[in-house]
Write a structure and sequence with these properties.
This protein has two domains: 2-17 and 115-167 and 247-332, Rossmann fold (3-Layer(aba) Sandwich); 21-108 and 171-243, no CATH class. Helix content is 43%, strand content 11%. It contains 15 helices and eight strands. The chain has helices at 9-14, 21-30, 33-45, 56-59, 65-74, 82-89, 91-108, 138-141, 172-182, 206-211, 224-243, 248-254, 256-260, 280-289, 306-316; strands at 2-7, 129-132, 150-152, 192-194, 200-202, 265-271, 297-302, 323-327. A six-stranded parallel sheet has the order 3-2-1-6-7-8. Strands 4-5 form a two-stranded antiparallel ribbon. Helix 2 (21-30) packs across helix 3 (33-45), helix 3 (33-45) crosses helix 7 and helix 6 (82-89) crosses helix 11 (224-243). The protein is elongated.
């Protein structure tokens, strides 16, 4: 029975690669105006994320729709140019869609291993199969793992820019419904608002008119172009969630041959992976493709958050007796 190794970013970090998303933020700030502008845009529009730079990919699914819509309203200065208004108002959103991938790829090309070769807590078998979530070639260049045994599931620098995959794991339709439902308790999306002096007036914020669950009277749009701008912007904002999605199932299908070859895997070792929900479809596919999923032995490495590793195993439905947890900190290894 073969061993399958799942390699995540913690593996590269242990080898001295400055590859965390907080390192990416520092890289952006070092680029000057363009990079600073991108960092500010991300922190503005994705600010509702619980951990923007700690869980960056998942945070891409936290775009503030209301803020984006109100930016369109702020840009509205011509009652005949709805399209131009939307283009100006959604410039920040567009930059995340178009410029962020380019800046991300350019950062990946700067990554280097600056430390000594790290000794993993579980030895690597050159004859094993590997799914590498990193974009570097450390498995090959530092550990001598044959290229043919490795699936760089999200692409790699060596394979070229076109191979790079990065994005959130949220389902756009479901996330929209959940977000709209959450507005019911938000006073800024109700039909009437109270100002600082206690005066009550109709809520005419474009975000409230677009997403609030109340009918908007024709005269409250101000002009037909403003309503048209709202409709165009609403469609554009939802397109963002599709453009920035990782689409794990598509990645799986592109690598169908590799996943189907995992039928004889009897042991899975997870090293350096964040165990983020965005990548759960891959783990579920590994189990689905196994010839004897209930017989697989799992070894899940963690650095400091064992509870997260245990929750990961529980979410996958793994038999606790078939899971071994391994701490990667030298002083805590068994």
């Amino acid at each position: 029975m073969r061993t399958l190794y799942i390699i995540g970013n913690g593996f590269d970090l242990a080898n001295g690669v400055r590859s965390s998303y907080r390192d990416f933020r520092e890289h952006l700030l070092s680029l000057g105006p363009e990079g600073v502008r991108m960092a500010v845009t991300l922190e503005s529009y994705l600010g509702s994320s619980p951990d923007l730079w700690g869980d960056f990919e998942e945070s891409l699914g936290f775009l503030d729709r209301g803020m984006a819509m109100d930016s369109v309203d702020d840009a509205f200065d011509n009652d005949k140019d709805a399209e131009g208004c939307v283009e100006r108002g959604l410039a920040g959103v567009t930059s995340i869609e178009e410029e962020l991938p380019r800046l991300f790829r350019s950062w990946l090309r700067t990554l280097r291993a600056e430390g000594s070769v790290w000794e993993p807590p579980v030895p690597l078998d050159p004859d094993g199969a590997y799914i590498d979530f990193n974009y570097t070639d450390l498995l090959e260049s530092r550990y001598g793992i044959p290229r043919g045994n490795i699936l760089y599931i999200h692409g790699s620098v060596a394979e070229g820019d076109g191979s790079i995959v990065m994005g959130h794991g949220s389902d756009p339709d479901r996330s929209y419904g959940e977000w709209v439902s959450s507005l019911r308790d938000d006073p800024s999306y109700r039909p009437y608002v109270r100002d600082a002096d206690g005066e009550v007036s109709r809520n005419t914020r474009l975000s409230a008119q677009a997403y609030g669950e109340y009918p908007v009277r024709d005269g409250e749009w101000g002009c037909d172009s403003r309503r048209r701008a709202m409709e165009i912007a609403k469609a554009g904002i939802e397109e963002y969630f599709g453009i920035t999605a990782k689409r794990c199932q598509d990645v799986i299908e592109r690598n169908r041959g590799f996943f189907d070859s995992l039928r004889d895997v009897g042991r899975v070792v997870v090293i350096g992976h964040s165990l983020s929900p965005v990548d759960m479809p891959y783990f579920r596919e590994i189990i689905r493709c196994s010839g004897s999923p209930d017989d697989i032995m799992w070894e899940v490495c963690y650095r400091s958050r064992r509870a997260r590793a245990e929750r990961f195993a529980e979410d996958l439905g793994l038999d606790p007796s078939r899971v071994r947890y391994v701490c990667t900190l030298p002083g805590d290894r068994e």
